[in-house]
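Data card: per-record layout.
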Amino acid sequence: MATFVDAAAAEFGGVRTVVYASGPHVPMLHLSRVTPTQYREQLEGDAAAFFNLVHPSLPHLRAAGNGSLVAVTTAATSRFPVRGVLSSCTKGAAIVRGIAAEEDRFGVRANSVGPGMLTDGMAARLIDSGDLDERALDVTRGNIPLRRFGRAADIAEAVCFLACDRAGFISGQKLDVDGGYGV
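The structure for this 183-residue chain is written out next.
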């Protein structure tokens, strides 16, 4: 990952913004059915992958003087969903606060966006795989005050805002874009 980050910095004259919006597929399982191997693999594919991007990015973000890191995590860290342990407990959201606490003095802001249930992306894969059936979707929709699912574009708007200069005094925060699920 360091080679990639350094190459991007060389190609574009530095790195001012890093957005982590990746991670492995997250099967919906009750905590009692998650094996230690599954949990470790999820940690490696999500939290460790996030750190592997952040670590080589920090010197470049510091050099920018006003660097911004935004991690797309999950709204499930605010309100735990049943069968959501592999999503809620393996994200990099907690480390974002640590990055903000330690890196703000170098001009690096760190925030996260917590998507709720969306109509695209991982939700589409969960529906296609059978992990989420119509009954589960109806229950989920009923737990969202707006009574609808969001879109990837909703998440992108929040990420763009937190990464831009207009959010220059926001750091160490998590913005859940979840239709009110976490209230």
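Known properties of this structure: The beta strands are 17-20, 68-72, 109-115, 174-177. The CA atoms of residues 19 and 70 lie 5 Å apart.

See the next section for split statistics.
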